[in-house]
Amino acid sequence: QVVLVSGHLDSWDVGQGAMDDGGGAFISWEALSLIKDLGLSPKRTLRLVLWTGEEQGGVGAQQYYQLHKENISNFDIVMESDEGTFQPSGLGFAGSAEARDIVKEIMTLLQPINVTDVYDTADGTDIAYWMRDGVPGASLRSDISKYFWFHHSQGDTMTVQDPNQMNLCAAVWTVVSYVIADMEDMLPR
Fold first, then answer.
1. pLDDT at res. 64
2. Active-site annotation holds for 54
């Protein structure tokens, strides 16, 4: 059984793609690194996917889906961060009402950093195939007020990234992915 965390490599246009979507890739990598560094071993596999070809029609995600869809019942949740890694506010979630209640309970663990909101939809080009077929999905929600200042521009460089905000985003990703991966049962469909 798999809990998938992801971001995509997207510097196809101009700039370095540090925010779009290097930030999503970085926090997904960091989530797995933190879990390993803490010596935690969840019941399910935590899988990091760094998508490619998102801007070229999502061809990387489509190929991954085609290669793994026969095991769709083993995917517990698919998570994608693609709205920058600014100050996080919560998690977008797509799934059953029962699964949403579980995710809301998990998010209460993030009260110390004031990131507890669960929004009604999850977004993500790279996880859309899975969500369409009923796999619960989650997307990081953060303050996007400055997102389009840098999106697909020469300004999308590492200087946009705030290490403190990225750490908070990584904390959200780490807590949610680990708790779901270590629950007794998979999220209800």
1. 97
2. yes
